[in-house]
Amino acid sequence: MTRSSVSLAEQRREQSRRRRVAAGTLGESFPHVQQLRIRLAFQDSAGPGPTGQIHDVYPSAPALFEFPCPHGGCDGGFDLTDAARTLMRASKPYAEGSQQCGGSRASQGPVRQPCTLRLSYRIAVQFEPAAGK
């Protein structure tokens, strides 16, 4: 890694840390939510995609739902924060959608190529008994 890429990686980590702190916790932002379950499935037009993931989020966790691209060497990721917040505000039980990774990956030679990974997600909310619909 070059000095500039290390600095860029450090900057991204610091920005991510600041966003997590600013977001507060799930319990602070959405006290009527007991748990959030986020299922991630990946498809890659260039070949087999990475294994899916499941994230269970509890009230003490940050209310920020960013996931790095699981492809090694990719500098992108997926931000489901708006989708999750919209879902919880509407008190709906689940939402589904998809996103394309906006990052780039190392390829042969010095040129980086756009990441071809696509995410399909499902966010399910478990509300406090009196708050959910």
Strand order of the largest sheet: 2-1-8-5
Gap from first CA to last CA: 50 Å
Structural class determined from secondary elements: alpha+beta
Number of beta strands = 8
Helix content: 25-40%
- Radius of gyration, taken over Cα atoms and rounded to an integer in Å: 17 Å
The percent range for strand residues is 35-45%
H/I helix tally: 3
Largest sheet: 4 strands, antiparallel
Mean pLDDT: 88
User: Rough shape?
Assistant: globular
Structural domains: how many:
1
* Model regions low in confidence, pLDDT < 50 over at least 5 residues: none
Order of helices and strands: HHEEEEHEEEE
Overall description:
With 133 residues, the protein is an alpha+beta fold. The chain has one domain. It has 3 helices and 8 strands, in the order ααββββαββββ. The protein is globular, with a radius of gyration of 17 Å.
How does the SSE layout of this entry go?
Layout: H1 3-23, H2 26-29, E1 33-44, E2 53-57, E3 66-68, E4 77-79, H3 81-89, E5 94-100, E6 104-106, E7 112-114, E8 117-127
Task: Name some characteristics of this structure.
single chain; 133 residues; alpha+beta; two-stranded antiparallel sheet; 26% helix; globular
Q: What's this, in brief?
A:
With 133 residues, the chain is of the alpha+beta class. The chain is 26% helix and 35% strand. The protein has one domain (3-127).
